[in-house]
Amino acid sequence: MTQPRPTRQWQVHDIGKRRAWVIWGVAIAVYVLAVFHRSSLGVAGLIAADRFDISATSLATFTVLQLVVYAGMQVPVGVLLDRFGSRAMLIWGLSLMTVGQLAFAFSESFAAAVAARAVVGAGDAMIFVSVIRIVTVWFLVRQAPMVTQVTGLTGQLGAIAAAGPLSYLLHALGWTRAFALTSSVGVVLLVAVLALVKDSPYRRSDVVAIKLRALAQSVRTVWGNPGTRLGMWSHFVSQFSATVFALLWGYPFLVQGLGWSSGGASALLMAMTAWAVVSGLVLARLVARLPYYRSYIVVCVVVAMVVPWTAVLLWPGAAPGWVVVLMAFATASGGPAAMVGFDLARSFTPAQAIGRANGLVNVGGFTASLLVMGLIGVVLDLSSSGGMDSYTLDDFKLAMAVQYAFWALGVVQVLRYRRRGLAHLARVHPGSVEQMRAGQPFVHPGIGTEGV
User: Fold this and answer.
1) Is the pLDDT of residue 450 over 60?
2) Which CATH number is 309's domain given?
3) 7 SS3 class
4) Distance of alpha carbon 432 from alpha carbon 439, whole angstroms
5) Is residue 44 in a domain?
6) Cα distance between residue 153 and residue 132, in whole Å
């Protein structure tokens, strides 16, 4: 692999101070919009099924294809991010999301709508890893776990906007005007990014130049690090259930399956986001204080999700409201737990490769999400071929049970790569494991010491 030439850099802005927070604030606003676009079918799914006259499998195609594009672009986006920086990627991502959502607003056919969602997914793919790179570069190492968690949690405001205000706009303005109005927000944020976002607090004499002929080897090198895989499987096992529930199948499961009202279902989706904020702040403190046990924390969150899901699915008939709420809150905790994957990868990766590492980590949860979404749609159609209105509670329970296979696979892989990752650190960086066991974060030598 062609190695980047040594760079000379001069710090021209304070790390972790006011300018860092301003840049992060603009970037997080873009991420909120990305989550809003991504989550919009969570409440528009039933309307979309009627508008385009499609089955559950076809409805799942919207979100699955969007996530296929999202996940498939993470590696090339990571390379482009290391080459061009967060500012350029935020601009490109915003432009694609705005165009895609506007096209979705005016789509009259299923094929055109699917193509529009694919464009939205391509833009969405560039946003989150760009924001995480800003956190890595602009904030102190001791600040990073908390800022990473707050990044994920603040982004979920987009899910709240999709669950509540978008539902109102769809009923008040109709499909076309509602989605056209939301697409216009991207133009405003594009101006803010151009005016305020900077890639780094340093003035560099060179950039990280990853040439196309070196792409395969650079990705293989980052992927070969067991810390990258540990982060990816941590993201895989903890994120998919919350994503599947919030983006597509939670609302139909609550309304069509459990018999909840549309208002009650929307309120629960918003309450899940509020709970994610609370649990995320707790997880951030735990991760910062117990860096050695980060992957165990992820496993514990997964177990906390599996138990109430089992109660809901095995309950004769519809489970009581309090059990469903407990399940939903436990599921919401998976979002903050997924952020731990990026913190794990940061311990194993130098700053100049963090874009590629974060891209690979981000593949995990979204790959699991799209597979689970698609399988749920397939199981529903196999259970009853009469369309969305024909699915019973038992059909939904059977379909939702596909999650167990992914939880089991993910937990096994997290424990597997935890062992490999610790062995790698002990071999390559002697003393690092003991440092983390003592409650001190390990800083990869490639990051340097100025951010500690």
Assistant:
1) no
2) 1.20.1250.20
3) coil
4) 11
5) yes
6) 13
**Residue 386 is part of which domain span?**
13-195+215-437
pLDDT tens, residue by residue, 138-187: 787 777 777 887 887 787 777 676 667 777 787 778 878 888 888 888 89
Q: Is residue 432 part of a domain?
A: yes
> Coil, helix or strand for 204?
strand
The DSSP symbol for 10 reads E
Q: Please state the pTM of the whole predicted model.
A: 0.74
Q: How many domains are contained in the chain?
A: 1
Gyration radius of the chain's alpha carbons: 21
| End-to-end Cα distance, the chain | 30
Q: Tokens 């080897």 correspond to what residue?
A: 217
DSSP 205-265: SS-----GGGHHHHHHHHHTSHHHHHHHHHHHHHHHHHHHIIIIIHHHIIIIIS---HHHH
- pLDDT (tens digit per residue) in 211-239: 555 655 677 778 888 888 999 999 999 99
Identify the helix (H) or strand (E) that includes residue 202.
strand 202-204
